[in-house]
Design goal:
This protein is mainly β. 5% of the residues lie in helices and 50% in strands. It has an 18-stranded mixed beta sheet that branches. It has a 15-stranded mixed beta sheet that branches. Strands 33-34-35 form a 3-stranded antiparallel beta sheet, with no helix packed on it.
Length: 439
């Protein structure tokens, strides 16, 4: 085990049955700078304590910094954070959203009692953090899917994907990997237990206790269908011609001829590849992640899940999960991108710099480096860098495998007036992405 600095603050909030006040009777100011996300699904009864008042939580109820969510014995809640992370809160549980700054990638959660499953977005900013605290310890993640249980003064962590740095309040830490678990008792200064393989029963129990579905299901295997082709013209899946109704799997390579088009549906999410485009599609805990190599990818998504993250060169593009949105990403060459939001907002990150693209706006984005793939690996995978080469987009170029050039001193974002050719592009995207349910 290793020692890591800790400024942990003990948070104790016993679960209590709260007087529920209808949300309509409370006037709440919408302060986007303090917004963390929203409740995306509820099994009653769930309440939110805010400013000394308790309100009944329902679908679409906003969640702000310092809000406390409480679930009763029959209740469960799903919270969609604004960076795309998902929190599934089990029954008889208490959660305080101390902080969630999507732009800075700073998230602090405190569990006073009960069970929570966290599907966190990948941390890529140098000072980014995503922490879940209990009175016994703290779990810090880079970007992963994990479960936390705090009962009887004991904190347990089970990791489904990725890695978690698990520490007691004295700063003694262990690293818990995928398929492993560890525990620590409150006031135990010796540190968390050495991680061990999670038994199948424990893993399925963690899923079932935080699922909001009627029948809890474990994460689907990679060889299970991810989506389906709904439109195809001069398009391909791998080296084979695609056709309407064809099944899409995680890791598939999708491409279109110059005069082609391809539309894929994943749940209520629609993804369109325009002519002369290519991308890999991968399963993700939040929906899908697309590695766009060339051309134009357009999307149309409802609020909540599933969401899509688009990675082009070293730029990561994430539509804000809490609202329905549509937009497009175009790669004219690996060092020049055009990102447009036709509806909703898009969070764009290049190295340590970020930009929120508001509805109806467009930005040209210059990556720090172009990226060429040596193998088909998801951008969310821990070993992604090892299988890709980076070449600097500015100044003398040097090809590097498993490393990125340093961030430039200039801003990589240039606003584009949404008129003329840009407006035509947005209209074309809108027409291509009309809801299939629209008459």
């Amino acid at each position: 085990m290793k020692i890591c600095p800790s400024n942990a603050v003990v948070f104790v909030c016993p679960l209590a049955i709260l007087l529920l006040v209808p949300a309509a009777t409370i006037t709440l100011a919408d302060t986007p700078e303090q917004r963390a996300g929203e409740v995306s699904r509820v099994i009653p009864a769930v309440s939110i304590m805010r400013g000394g008042q308790s309100i009944a939580a329902d679908t679409k109820t906003p969640v702000y910094w310092q809000d406390e969510l409480n679930t009763l014995a029959s209740g469960r809640a799903r919270v969609s954070l604004d960076d795309g992370s998902i929190l599934n809160l089990g029954s008889s549980s208490n959660l305080r959203v101390a902080k969630h700054d999507a732009g800075a990638q700073q998230t602090e959660l405190a569990v006073g009692l009960g069970k929570i499953r966290v599907q966190a977005q990948k941390i890529s900013r140098p000072n980014g953090k995503f922490e879940v605290r209990t009175p016994a310890g703290v779990a810090g993640v880079i970007g992963t899917d994990f479960y936390v249980d705090y009962e009887s003064n004991t904190m347990s962590v089970v990791v489904f994907e990725g890695k978690v740095k698990f520490c007691n309040l004295a700063g003694v830490c262990v690293e818990v990997g995928a398929g492993e678990m560890s525990t620590v008792r409150q006031d135990d200064t010796s540190g968390p237990a050495v991680p061990t393989q999670t038994l199948a029963g424990m893993m399925s129990g963690a899923v079932a206790s935080t699922s909001l579905e009627i029948s809890a299901q474990a994460a689907p295997a990679e060889n299970t269908p991810l989506g389906m082709v709904t439109k195809s013209m001069s398009a391909h899946i791998g080296s084979s011609a695609s056709s309407e109704g064809a099944t899409i799997y995680s890791g598939d390579y999708l491409s279109t001829d110059p005069d082609g088009a391809l539309q894929v549906r994943v749940g209520n999410l629609s993804i369109d590849l325009k002519g002369g485009s290519s991308a890999h599609i991968f399963r993700a805990t939040y929906g899908v992640v697309m590695a766009l190599n060339r051309g134009t990818l357009a999307y149309n998504k409802p609020s909540g899940q599933p969401n899509v993250v688009i990675v082009a060169s070293d730029v990561r593009i994430t539509p804000v999960v809490s609202v329905a949105s549509s937009g497009s990403v175009s790669v004219s060459d690996p060092c020049n991108l055009l990102i447009q939001s036709q509806r909703g907002q898009i969070y764009v990150q290049v190295g340590s710099q970020s930009q929120m693209v508001e509805q109806g706006k467009a930005f040209r984005v210059r990556p720090i480096s172009s990226v060429s793939e040596n193998s088909s690996v998801s951008p969310d995978a821990d070993n992604y860098e090892a299988w890709h080469s980076h070449q600097a987009c500015e100044g003398p170029t040097q090809t590097m495998k498993g490393a990125r050039p340093k961030s430039p001193s200039y801003s990589p974002f240039t606003a584009v007036t949404t008129g003329g050719a840009i407006l035509i592009t947005i209209i074309a995207v809108h027409e291509a992405l009309e809801s299939p349910n629209r008459p």
